[in-house]
Amino acid sequence: MANIVSLDKVSKTYPAGQIFDEISLGIDDGDRIGIVGLNGAGKTTLLRMLTKAEEPDEGRVTHRRDLRVAALPQTLDLPPEATVRAVIVGTAWLPAAFAAEHEWAGDSGVRTVLNGLGMPHLGLDAPVGPMSGGERRRVALAALLVRPADLLILDEPTNHLDVAGIAWLARHLLQRRGALIVVTHDRWFLDAVCTSTWEVADATVRAYEGGYAAWTLARAERVRVAAETEARRQNLLRKEIAWLRRGPPARTSKPKFRIDAANALIADVPPARDSVSLQRLAVTRLGKQVYELEGVSLRAGDRTLLDPTDWLVGPGDRIAILGANGAGKTTLLRVLAGVREPDGGRLLRGSTVKAAFLSQELRELPNDMRLLEAVEEVAKRVRLGDRELTAGQLAEVFGFTGARVWTPVGDLSGGERRRLQLLRLLATEPNVLLLDEPTNDLDIDTLAALEDLLDTWPGTLVVASHDRYLVERVADTVYGMHGDGKLRNLPGGVDEYLSHVSESAGFGAPSGPAAAVARTPDLRASEKDQRAAKKELAKLERSMDRLTQKEEQLHAKLAEHATDYTKITELDAQLRAVQQEKAEVEEQWLALAEIAG
């Protein structure tokens, strides 16, 4: 693989703080890199430096000669008078150096891309000015996909795409030549497309092999190693402090190097990372009836979104609704939330239902208030488990610490505003959550915290989302809205939805390396093998618990006999043997977990 872009000891600082400190990275031809990190960590800044749209304060960014770099930024500036054709195959947006010489450049090829991105209705001669932000973004993405580029950089390409559009884009990018860099919070997309992951955090960039799943495992291992290192540091610190306190009271001096070592241990505390720990707030008791739709129909202008439909949503139901943009998902949620009335039929709502509706818009946030005031407007005190928290303490639980609670709501980032919106809803103690695209603008760490919260949600959950990872994790039942006025139960989940979309569009089944992306693997073992695997898993888990306890005991003994070289050698050999045995048991557990499902 030939190197096409290099960053050499690059540093970047803004008034709010240092973003990067002497980072060195390289991109090879054929690399497919996913970039992850918290909101505000510097992902977009990194992309701008890679494209040379922004210069580093120190260090340098080097491109291979004649390198063609095409980028989809977060904010677009398309000329409003330009037509779709002029943007995609002309020079209305991209310079002539990116002439669309690729085989996709013909009208039929452009139409294929637009269909794949969920815009079959779009005319090539339509002006982009009157289009919605999502449509303009998809037109710009199509312009990049029909043109050749040595390096394609996409900042949140899955925004405004539905599940089918995201799956199509993943297949297309797998077949595309050249290097790819993508910033996205869509974890399924990262796993499907990327072969390596860059994590932007703590003014540096850490590179990992593999997509989202591999990065998650590697990060967990890094945290585990850091925890072990900190545990050893704490044991050594206790020993040093005990030594400093030991001895006759008359002794007034001790060897300076021992005092310096103890002080260094006390000072050497790793900085706490800014994180979010969403925990379940109090929930109002939910009765036996939640929602019952009797012949409910929905319309948008002359278009029918939902034919007369009977539908029952019960207590504890966990439902996901899939559908293309404009299919009626948001309208259905708004009816359940009581924001609008159905166009026909009637909705029966349980007397104990206390619903919280997380909309896609952020208009309901009070931009003229400070963050703490916006929380206190909803609740000054709330129950979190068995504790009662003030509004300020609740804000800290959601990651708003220190002076951040006094920030005007209007100055918060998109991810912070989304997090505040969720905080305000949960503080009302709802028993039904209606979530419309809840993952919009949230970084991956906050998404993981949100999913942990939803995993244990005791009430009823109805979520409309294009985030396949979220849907497959938190929902027990999936319904599809395909634009034909029907609300269909999909026992096969996302795979059944994508299959229905492909059949409706007349697409054949994908082949080659893209085939694996179109569906979730379903290589299931027989029920007999699964039962046997689950039994063995239980045994292995007990073995792991026993080995973990033994490992902890040996660590304690090592600390206890820190000055006895002979004893330490003996204990260290025992510890290595236990760790080796534990690693083998974990390998067996992982293999059996695949069979057990």
From TrEMBL:
SMART domains: AAA. CDD domains: ABCF_EF-3. GO terms for molecular function: ATP binding; ATP hydrolysis activity; DNA binding. Residues 5-227, 291-509 form the ABC transporter domain. Pfam families: ABC_tran, ABC_tran_CTD. This is ABC transporter ATP-binding protein. PROSITE patterns: ABC_TRANSPORTER_1, ABC_TRANSPORTER_2. Keywords: ATP-binding, Coiled coil, Nucleotide-binding. Residues 523-588 form a coiled coil.
